[in-house]
Amino acid sequence: LGVVLxxxxxxxxxxxxxxxxxxxxxxxxxxxxxxxxxxxEYRVRFEGAPxxxxxxxxxxxxxxxxxxxxxxxxxxxxxxxxxxxxxxxxPRYSEDDKVVRVTLxxxxxxxxxxxxxxxxxxxxxxxxxxxxSARLTIPAAGMWKITASVPRxxxxxxxxxxxxxxxxx
Length: 169
Known about the structure:
Blueprint: E1 2-9, E2 16-23, E3 40-46, E4 55-56, E5 60-62, E6 67-68, E7 72-73, E8 82-90, E9 101-108, E10 111-119, E11 121-125, E12 130-137, E13 142-150, E14 159-160, E15 164-168
Antiparallel strand pairs: 1-2, 1-3, 3-4, 3-5, 6-8, 7-8, 8-12, 9-10, 9-13, 11-12, 13-14, 13-15
């Protein structure tokens, strides 16, 4: 049987029909992949064989994963001195919506231990991206890493950036 995927951005009235099409295998199974750029509702329509009724699934809402870059230092990193890290987040957030959490981790006996976590400031933005920054201080010599994360929201799924590793003498 043929399987058709329909889509509509969450909150919009009409469906975009026939966005993806596939066939079921002998066991009636199928696989469809999506990568929404914004929260989107999907439904699956099963095309009936001649003489059979077609069926429509319930609606499934999928939010895209936030695109979050790693928080890179913007200058020199020295023990005991404050420094700035910056990165980007898609989708765009307003200046007041501080959602990026920057975390400083210390390597202790082979394990990463969270030492400090701060909400980043939204510095500027364009049509699709927010640029964030935060101030941190590394208090001691050793191996450190910095990550950024955002919680799940109505706009996107939760996400964590890759880590920036620092060796501080």
